[in-house]
Structures are given as C-alpha cells and as structure tokens.
Request: fold
Amino acid sequence: MCIAIKLTLLLIAAVGAVMVAFGSLPAQQRQVTLQADLPTDLPPLASDPVKFQQVLLNLLTNALHITSAGGRIAVAAREERSAARNSG
Reply:
C-alpha cells in the first residue's frame, strides 16, 4: 500500500486556529469550553496539510466525545528545542 504525502511548511498557529474555530460550534452545543494557546511565533512545520488537519480534527473530535458538559478542552502548541545538534 502506498500513501502519498505532500510536504508543505505549515504555520501551526494558523492551522490550529482554523481547527479550533471549526470545533467551536460542537463544543458550544455540548457546553464544553474550547481554549487555544497557539503562539504565532512557532517555527513552520514540514507536514502534509491534509493529513495534519485530519489528525487535529480526530483529536478534537475524540476530546469532544469524552468531555462532559461543563468541561474544558485545551489546544496548545510549544516549540521544544532538542539538546542534540546536527554535526553534519
């Protein structure tokens, strides 16, 4: 089986904001608070935009299914710097 992946540089804050906006109405209907902490200065991520959005949508959908009314879902992203350096 071959899966085609199209790598593109994604702005995490922009993609995340769209996904959070998409989830706002279902969250309101379930009386769940949806919060986003997505810094705009995160470096771009090389990823397939369709697959990345699908992963975020799946996570958000799953979170909505298991969060009780009055609950809270937080979506956050942070840059994690590795101590490893490329010596190449």
